[in-house]
């Protein structure tokens, strides 16, 4: 039980907001951005931390990295108390803030890495070995280009490198693929997959890119309104929020009587009633059974089955209509 | 204190950054040299219409001006970039500094060295040298020492004002030109004898914020003149002590501000 790299219990963060009421008076109100989060992340895990905008993701990351002081709760990262031991913690963590650079804008990229070596006091041999590895894995063929001339994709690969050059125990990646083109995203994902499989670095990844999550994260922590609403695998998320396969049936004639099967809902119907979309809970009614029923009821012409996507789950999750209902678990 | 070498590297990185913009750097350097010269011209013009200002003659006021200009130029080059703090707070760039194993203030001061203002130091130095040679100053060893220390003490005092007023950004992000009222305003204030200001203004700026100790009192000590305002002679020599006090105070205000930032997230 001592291997937890991040441990939070009842972590809370309030903000005082002053709002103008009338000409001079201001009303003071307290907004709770993070409302009692329990989190335990073991060494070597790659955890996707997601939630809608304003759910408290950034606030949590800021507390974990020692930027922001928690209002209440217990928090240890690498066994340290983040705000009080900020500088010690900074030696052991790496951070990529998607929108804020750690690089020196006007200098060749190589110089930023050299400065990082001194800032984090990395032994030259370790530095050289890591830089060689990242140069290969991230294809950093632009080490002599000034940072301001790098493309966004190149810059993000450079940011990942500088965050990892001192061999941190944990890296926090705040939206590392935001704004990247497809190829750059693939390069970043391939690199993170490699990092995950190596298993010596714990990764906390916040992203809105659901492909990142499907490709990379074995564990998802979803927060909403400052609370953890899900902590587990992607599969368990689907199960819990009743993700359903969709069955789209095209008929020659509209149905004369509705389909009545357990776990099957008519989600959508075309105006002429010939194209029907059903949501299907495969554990209650197998897809084959639905197809057979449709075939028996009328003239089935075509059938398409789509797997549940994480977009659906997350969209429903964010919309707040799935909150812990027992749909998928009955 | 191995950190010093790291900060030196950060500074050196800034120096190299400038080589990316060589042309505009040269122009900035020249333009910055011009500013103190224009201020000197203002003083000379003033003395065309009046033989003394606040009881001091032209060559005496020029010593004050030289001390004030040199002190300010040194402080401006060393810590003037702290005024960008409000930008860093607003854009969140401060967070990037907080996740490095270095002091935040140290990083900010090394993040942007306004080297283009270096020419002001040279010009201010020349003005001070000429003023001292023309003023009725009997250079004893003690006065020579004071002459060497006073610009540094003045720079520390101005630096403290820079840091303390920039800290306001932690409370008030849209602080705009607030800090400039005290920094640039302070420079202009110190360029003249404090005897010219009304009591309220004088108590606030000269003593409350300590601006009288940048140029006015050191100049009195150099001239060997008693303070027309009646302060004991020792006060004229107390600038270094005042500077140390101001630096400690500014450091405390800074730490308080950072603590507040981390508890409000601004």
Q: What can you see in these coordinates?
A:
Chain A is an alpha/beta fold and 330 residues long. Chain A folds into two domains: 4-232, P-loop containing nucleotide triphosphate hydrolases (Rossmann fold, 3-Layer(aba) Sandwich); 244-307, Alpha-Beta Plaits (2-Layer Sandwich). Chain A contains ten helices and 13 strands. Chain A has helices spanning 57-64, 86-92, 109-119, 124-137, 152-164, 182-198, 210-216, 234-240, 287-297, 310-319, and strands at 4-20, 26-42, 46-50, 72-77, 93-97, 170-174, 202-206, 219-224, 227-232, 245-251, 264-269, 275-280, 300-306. In chain A, a hairpin with a 5-residue loop joins β11 and β12. Chain A is globular. Chain B is mainly alpha-helical and 266 residues long. Helices cover 72% and strands 0% of the residues of chain B. Chain B is built from 13 helices and no strands. Chain B is globular. The two termini of chain B are 31 Å apart. Chains A and B meet through α2, β5 and α3 of A and α1, α5 and α13 of B.
Q: What descriptive keywords fit this protein?
A:
heterodimer, A: 330 residues, alpha/beta, Rossmann fold, Alpha-Beta Plaits, 2 domains, 6-stranded mixed beta sheet, 10 helices, globular, disordered C terminus, B: 266 residues, mainly alpha
Brief rundown of the structure:
The complex is a heterodimer of chains A (330) and B (266). Chain A is built from ten helices and 13 strands. Chain A is of the alpha/beta class and 330 residues long.
